[in-house]
Amino acid sequence: MVTLNKKIFKNKKVLITGNSGFIGSWLSLYLLNLQCKVYGISSGRFNKNNIFNLLNLKRKIKNYNINLTNEKQVKKFFKGKKFDIIFHLAAEPLVYDGFINPKKMILNNINSTLNVLDYFRENQKTVLINFTTDKVYKNEDKKNIRFKESDKLGGLDPYSFSKSAVDLMTTMWKSTYFNKKNIFKYCNLRSGNIIGGGDWNDKRIMVDIVKHHFLKRKIYIRQPNSYRPWIHVVEACLSMLLIAQGLIKNPYLSGDYNIGPNTGQEKNIKWIFQNSLKILKVKSKKINIKKNIKKFPEKSFLGLNNKKFIKKFNLNFNLSTFDRLKFTLDWYYVFFKNKKEIENFTYNQIKLIHKKLNFKVKKH
């Protein structure tokens, strides 16, 4: 049984950057249920149908609309504030956007992280979870290669480069401003592709499938044979919380960790599309392949070795990718068919996923 101790989190002062986004909304929900004092920084832009809005989280946390790339704004926000944990999620998250506007992508992701890291120069007891991506690794597109935390970094597109730089910058901060007696309690958490209810970002396969099925939008698939390491957003949240709990108790757990599905559960886009139709009880359809893929190159295989995380924190990622897919589509089905029930459904789905993962929250 994997456990979170509510007593460890209760009344902790916690900041989430990017709190109103897809992942940040789910994480906010968890932290509120752990009775943390939750602060959030966001750009002020969020989809009205994500968890943040549907569950009215804005009224339950202290939310600030701040441009994290603006050094003056960030310093003003941090002045006089002391946090126990900072979850840094804020970023330009879409690979496609990096191809369209590389300068904006790179400057945003690097400068926003730099401004957050500056807080730790004077607040060295705070735990940092720097949430990043599987795309930080130098991927030479070899099939069945699952990256370990010690493998070489080197993002080969604007988004991946920016996240590789941020990852290295966090590690550099440890070497520059901390020492053996004063350990930087941090984690670079490199995550696989995250799916789950409440994601409405364009250029994501699950969002495209949902809009195609429920809103009758056309769907075009860029790379049907590209394999990705899919996990559910609940798994991502539990991973962040388990690491934060671990670092509070033992700073020597600091470092880099991968989170992703177990070996063999990486699935290609074609599999995701066809099994989504099966879950939605729709007859198989011809896949429309997008013609301009040369303008948007992608790797054909991306996998992560999750053994280090499992060894340290015991979360075994034993959901199947079909389970993850079904949990995701079930959420959207309820949203479109009975929106009033989405809050109860969300909490009940969390309980069901916890059971499958052999996970529980310990109250004392």
Structural overview:
The model has no long low-confidence stretch (mean pLDDT 92). Helix 6 (102-118) runs parallel beside helix 7 (158-177). The chain has a domain at 2-196 and 231-267 and 302-320: Rossmann fold (3-Layer(aba) Sandwich), CATH 3.40.50.720. The strands form five sheets. The chain has a seven-stranded parallel β-sheet, with helices on both faces. Strands 1-15 form a two-stranded parallel ribbon. It has 13 helices and 15 strands. The chain has 364 residues and is of the alpha/beta class. Strand 2 (13-17), helix 2 and strand 3 (37-42) form a beta-alpha-beta unit. 43% of the residues are buried.
User: Helix/strand/pairing class, anyone?
Assistant: alpha/beta
CATH class of one domain: Alpha Beta
Shape: globular
Approximate helicity band: 40-55%
Neighbour order of strands in the largest sheet: 4-3-2-5-6-8-12
Instruction: Report low-confidence residues grouped into runs of 5 or more.
Output: none
Compute the average pLDDT.
92
**What is the quaternary state of this protein?**
single chain
Q: Write down the Rg.
A: 20 Å
Would you give the CATH topology of one domain? Rossmann fold
| Tally of contiguous helical segments | 13
Cα-to-Cα separation, first versus last residue: 16 Å
Query: Can you summarize the main beta sheet?
Result: 7 strands, parallel
**CATH H level, superfamily name of one domain:** NAD(P)-binding Rossmann-like Domain
Total DSSP E strands? 15
Quickly give the CATH architecture of one domain.
3-Layer(aba) Sandwich
Strand percent estimate:
15-25%
